[in-house]
Every structure is written in structure tokens, then in C-alpha cells.
Amino acid sequence: MRINCPICGDRDRREFYYLGASDYLNRPAEGDLDAIHKYLHIRENPAGVTKDLWHHEAGCSSWLVVERNVSTHEILGVELASEVAK
Amino acid sequence: MIDLIAKSAAEGLLPVTIGTMTLTELPLRKMHSIAPFKGAEVSAALKKATGVSLPDTGRATAKDDVEILWTARGQYFLIGATPPKLPAAITDQSDAWCSVVLSGESAPQVMARVCPLDLGQMGEGDVARSLVGHMTAIIVKRADGFEIMVFRAFAKTLTHELREVMVSVTAQAALPE
Ligand SMILES: [Zn+2]
């Protein structure tokens, strides 16, 4: 598996660290317990297209949002998390 | 007065020549990490103070003995000069790294076994942050081979891993067809 980092280009999977769903970018307001519970624990988990956070740990150190199909392993798009979170 | 003895990171381990390849340690030089603050412009000030401006992503710029490497997103290493006051986070990295050069005909085969980069794509002065074995490394394509920089504490592991592969690649080349 290879991920096309917007900074570094096409790189091997072993350079990246996987965090989890890109939902982590949308942190709810403090005190909203239901929203925080959902933010931490509730995931769609589709057998299809997902968006996840990956860290280019052994590369440029960017956080990336990688859109991929978990059924086919196809990678559909890679964006800098800093751009997505704007 | 105590005389302190300066020891390089790979002291006593290098140079080694195996088959057509040589692994040599580069002398330690003054080195600073420069991470410009958000939106800050530091290139012109660096150029004025050191003669070298910031390189593009994945590149190095150099003039005389001074060089600047792109080393990560928003991070550069200034080598061979002291940085001026800049709107940037600056840390002294001198003595913190071990820098070696792998040269020789079979150097690309050796690198191919330990590094996931597509090294055939790299031209002289290209810089990449990647892995060598399990170590995070800065790799610079030089005219005479690959410069590999790892944290100083990994000097022994780096030389060990590269030696093993140099031996193996050389032995394989000597096998009858
Ligand atoms: Zn990257």
C-alpha cells in the first residue's frame, strides 16, 4: 500500500502511522457530554469508503486525511489535515 | 586544565570498503534546526547572513561551505553556519546526528534493501525524510552517492545494518550465474 503525501509524494505505507477516523478533526465543544461520547466512541464503520487520519511519521510529519475504500484497498484521495480542518 | 577529546559519532566504526562500495563518516559540523513561525519570512534574512536562502520542499541549497536542507514540513537544517535572529524556532542540532556517505556502484542496491524510497527518482541535491531499517533518517542524494543522517545514538546500528547489506549484496554479485 502506498500513500501519496501532498508534501513528499508517493510513499510506502511503513512511513505512516494510522490514527483513526477523520472525525477526530471535529472536536465538540467542552461540556457537551453526548457529543464527546459520540466523538470518541461512535463510528460509522462502513464496508466501503472511509476517511482516516494518517501521520507521515517517518516523512515530513504532516497529518493527512486519507480517503480509501476498505473493501478494495483503493486510495481515493489524500489531503493535508490542516487544509481540511480550516 | 582538562583536555576534552572530541569523538565523532561513528568513531572507530568507519570508513569501511566492501566490494565496490565505501561507507564513510562525514565530519560533524555546526547544525541548527530552523522552523519558521506561521507565515514568517526568514529566507531573505538567512540569505543575507549566510549567503544561502531556504530550499524548496525536498531540496537543498548551498554556497561554499554553508548548506540548508529541507528536513520536514516547515523545518530546515542550516549546516556550517550560525543562524541570525529569526522569527523561527531554532534549536542547536550540532553533534546530535551521525552523517555517513554510501558510495560505489552497488550503493543503490544496498539502499533499496533498507530504505522504502524510490531512489532512482532522486537527483543530486534532493532531500527526503524516510526510514533506513527502523530508523528515521534524512537522505540526501550527492554526486558520489547517498548521504544518510540519523540520530547520533543510532550510529552503531546504522553502520551495522549498512555493513550487513553491503556484505550480502557483494556476496550475491560474486555468485556464479
Ligand atoms: Zn510527507
From TrEMBL, chain A:
<dbReference type="Pfam" id="PF04267">
    <property type="entry name" value="SoxD"/>
</dbReference>
<dbReference type="GO" id="GO:0046653">
    <property type="term" value="P:tetrahydrofolate metabolic process"/>
</dbReference>
<dbReference type="InterPro" id="IPR038561">
    <property type="entry name" value="SoxD_sf"/>
</dbReference>
<dbReference type="GO" id="GO:0008115">
    <property type="term" value="F:sarcosine oxidase activity"/>
</dbReference>
<protein>
    <submittedName>
        <fullName>Sarcosine oxidase subunit delta</fullName>
    </submittedName>
</protein>
<dbReference type="InterPro" id="IPR006279">
    <property type="entry name" value="SoxD"/>
</dbReference>
UniProtKB/TrEMBL annotation, chain B:
<protein>
    <submittedName>
        <fullName>Sarcosine oxidase subunit gamma</fullName>
    </submittedName>
</protein>
<dbReference type="InterPro" id="IPR027266">
    <property type="entry name" value="TrmE/GcvT-like"/>
</dbReference>
